[in-house]
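Supplementary Text 2. Reproducibility record for the structural model of the 215-residue chain.

All settings were left at their defaults, and a single model was retained for analysis rather than an ensemble. We include the record here because the model underlies the residue-level annotations in Supplementary Table 4.
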Amino acid sequence: MVMYEPEVLEELIALAKDKGVITIADEIMTGFGRTGKMFATDYIQTKPDIYCMSKGLTGGAMALGVTTCTQEIFDAFLSEDRRKTLFHSHSFTANPLACTAALASLDLLLLPETQAQIKALHQSHVEFAQKLKAEKASTVDSVRVRGTILAIEIHTEEGTSYFSNIRDMAYNFFLEKGILMRPLGNIIYLLTPYCIQQEDLDYVYACIEEFLDFK
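Retained model, structure tokens:
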């Protein structure tokens, strides 16, 4: 959950393109509104050459992944010579049911009500982040928000680590509260569903504050 500003990504991709390096956008987690825009790369002007998409594509209803590429890359493998083929396949390639679920999910995602809810979630996260920074400064090293993503880096004497035992403490604490959370070491984060009610979100916030006090 390390975040950096769009300007940094813009410069990195521009540099890669200038050197002829193909760039890949892993939008599997960040795509379909998670960062506040349809894709994380919508925050920049210079676009990657390959996009990987999944998860939000079907709203989590079914497993489905899509990889897209530029025309230049496509043409590089377009040939009647089978030795130039980019051999790839999957048992569920173009699964009709999964594709139908994706189309339905996208219809819902693009509704004005859904887009308004995404903005409201972002604003709630921002307000909660400000509260944590003001009231939990000794417990929290950093609070990061981008769209509907909220990441809280908990202070630990051992420093930030994916292997911090805070992960197990947090996982069990929240599970007992009826919240399924997957902490990354000493970083707890929210990827709230867009349909979450404010009452439920406030409950999650309250449990986070309780855990920070408990910890």
